[in-house]
Amino acid sequence: MMINRKIAPEVLPIEKLRITEPELIKEDGDFKFYYLENKSFDGFKLDLYFDAGYKHNTRLESKIASNSLFLGTSNRKEEDIENEFDLLGSFKGTEVSADYSSVSFLGSNNNFSKIVEIALEVISNNKINEKSFQQLISSQKQTFKVNQEKVSVKARNLFINKLYTSTHLEKTIALTDYDNVKCADIQRFIDKNFKKGLLKVTLTGNVSDEQLQELSNHLKPLVCNTKKDTSIIYKHNAGKFHEIKEEAVQSALRVGRMLFNRNHEDYPKFMFLNTLLGGYFGSRLMSTLREEKGLTYGVGSGVAQSEDHGYFFISTEVKKENHYEAIDIIKAEIEKLQSELVSDEEIEKVKNYLVGNLLKNSDGPFAQMSKFMAVENMGLDLTYYDRLLQTYQDIKPEEVKEIANRYLKWEDLLICSVG
Amino acid sequence: MIEYNKFELKNGLKVIHHFDKTTPMVVVNTTYDVGAKDESPERTGFAHLFEHLMFGGSKNIPNFDAPLQKAGGSNNAFTSNDLTNYYCVLPKENVETALWLESDRMLSLAFTEKSLEVQRNVVIEEFKQRYLNQPYGDVWMELRKLIYKKHPYQWATIGEKVEHIEEATMEDVKSFFFKHYAPNNAILTIAGNISLDETKQKVEKWYSDIPFREVAKRDLPQEPKQDKFRSKIIERKVPNNAFYYAFNMPGKMKNSYAEMDLISDILGRGKSSRLYNILKRKEGAVSEINAFVNGAQETGLLIISGFLSDGVSFEEVENLIWQEINKLKNELLPSKELLKIKNKFITTKIFNEANILPKALELSTNELIGNIELVNTESEIYQAVSEQSIFDAVKHYLTRNNCSRLLVKSVNDDK
């Protein structure tokens, strides 16, 4: 067959996005337990979301508490807990965000019942062993010291500090904080926010009705049916801030602003703009900063979101000597979007990329549960993705320009750098 | 069970097909049998620089990423000491776009000066961002030099020094391409909701016209067997003292590889491992401890690494490490402990095979080492590891004479 390599194969319409909605197994006020059945796979994933995020607490407390969940119970030592989980071939992890403190468990289906039983028992009966606690603090301090040497970490902390100025979220963790945290305080924190703080549960796997019922029973003592109220007033802070780090060979830049989350009517259009600007490998920023000028190994942008707010950020590490040039380039790329219309060709490229990317990120039961929870947490349902895709389909160059002008005024932005 | 089909084109291209109807995406993965080990000592970092250049335009297509993005796809690549791997993930309807793109750059690159200039700079920034500007970033470079005196594993994928990348010329680039990039030196794996017939038809269409090329015959200098303990101390501006113990072991999936992999788990994977239990939990001598195998093809390494707690000496920790190793030489592992490690292996494997991309990578890399069926027999091989075979492997490989030790002394530390 004679082929013409100079002509691209036709781009065909792709399958419609289909996200399976998980089953709501139990609901009790604010508490929800979702299950997504997956028969084609031998493993399960269980996620527990506790009302213990740093929205209501300090970052330090939330973090240390999350790491102390498996440091002992009233009748088990920390080492026995670890051994039991490992013996069952299970993995566990914790994560803290503004909204939640979550714990996840993975394992093979045939160990489901045993893993789940011990997981919930350990959390319900948590009693932190003092020696284990001291070791945790010591480890955390060492990790902290290593991270403080990284310009990217310092820039992120500087950005967060300025973004959240005049709210309690402005405080990022300092080394001395670790010396002031006491085991008894963290125990109180866990007793208050975990033992009766379970707000959401998601399970993906292949379990029987009996097993679901058994799990529901184990969950019951931990359930919280009324989540805490938040009353943080997010300010809009702008300005330029720089921290020197002499020995660094690169500078880390963080540019951004307080914005909104997916509940906002302009969110879908802004996400389109974000992708175009810095949200994929073919973005304006990647093309200039990396591919054209070779100033960086990578640049990205995004919107970080919580239930009650969201912020926009551009993040990169660049050649130290070209620090100011890089900031000028970022400014110039934003100004281009505010003054020139994007071509139809580029709109189509970004649109197609976004549609394909959403399809990829919704592939498989774990991804599907994740996509479902991303909207559920904001009080939305799966029709959100239909609206999102429709926005991408319909967006016009004029709208992109208008959104860029409304939300990316340079004087509204925070520009933070370390290097 | 991962089911697959295998066929070969006349030009030597090996093709693997894996059918998976549960996904809307398809993976087009290309593994070239060339890695950092194939570089010349004066031109290190080349295989990796070349990986970047592969995105700078091919013979008929000026831009690789844009057409793929337009087809709703994304891609990435990585280079190791053993191989260079490129993968595209895109909606199955548009699989031909990926085949068109990948086959064109297998045919020939555009070789533009601009592309070389830009990617040189990008790679230099990568060198800085990931290795020079990070605490402990150059540890592996030092460790490799200590372990390998003759073998090309002595330099890291990013390169021995920035100058090698700075001095790369267009001639070097062209020569590298024609020496290593060829259909007969590649494995193409296609996984997703696409039939074998459609795969055959489309692959034949886009790849048949790429000519077979004489590829550089691999003749790597062999590393003489290490017969004495080696040690090096370096000083760095880092917060904690760190230690790295490396033991030579067989290459990926060769005899005793599974044993050594499980030994590394017993010693230092997770919080119920032996080294974690003694060195961290009981003695508080380390703030972090790990053990793992590096999975290299030709010859491998089992590494024990960690950070010292404040006020603890390197000697103290070393004694504890050898004590734990010696325990494994004095008595057989309790069967419950072996079961534990195997259970973790099983779970890891289950989750690794949850998605088509890792499956495609597994098929490809096993084909590369000459045994594609390992995707299915690997589990049996690990299950067959016994307390006795572990015991024998420890005795054979975890000896002082087979060990190289790198210590990183923190110059901020004035104790």
The largest β sheet of chain B comes out as:
6 strands, mixed
Helix-strand string of chain A:
EEEHHEEHHHHHEHEEHHEEHHHHHE
Give the rounded overall mean pLDDT of chain A.
95
Report the sheet-strand fraction of chain A: 15-25%
Helix percent of chain B reads 40-55%
Number of strands of chain B: 11
Question: How large is the radius of gyration of chain A?
Answer: 24 Å
Helix content, binned percent of chain A: 40-55%
How large is the share of residues in beta strands of chain B?
15-25%
Uncertain stretches of 5 or more adjacent residues of chain A: none
Mean pLDDT of chain B: 95
Q: How are strands sequenced across the largest beta sheet of chain A?
A: 1-2-6-3-5-4
Rg of chain B is 23 Å
* Through-space gap between termini of chain A: 57 Å
Order of helices and strands of chain B: EEEHHEEHHHHHEHEEHHEEHHHHHE
Number of strands of chain A: 11
Task: Summarize the structure in words.
- The complex is a heterodimer of chains A (419) and B (415).
- Chain A is of the alpha+beta class and 419 residues long.
- Chain A contains 15 helices and eleven strands.
- In chain A, a hairpin with a 4-residue loop joins strand 9 and strand 10 (310-319).
- Chain B is 42% helix and 20% strand.
- Chain B has helices at 46-53, 65-70, 95-107, 113-132, 139-147, 162-166, 170-180, 196-207, 257-268, 274-282, 314-330, 335-352, 356-368, 374-383, 387-397, and strands at residues 5-8, 14-19, 25-32, 74-79, 84-91, 186-192, 230-236, 242-250, 286-293, 299-308, 403-410.
- In chain B, the strands form two sheets. Chain B has a six-stranded mixed sheet with strand order 1-2-6-3-5-4, with helices on both faces. Chain B has a five-stranded mixed sheet with strand order 7-11-8-10-9, with helices on both faces.
- Chain B is globular.
- The model of chain B has no long low-confidence stretch (mean pLDDT 95).
- The interface between A and B is large, with 74 and 77 residues.
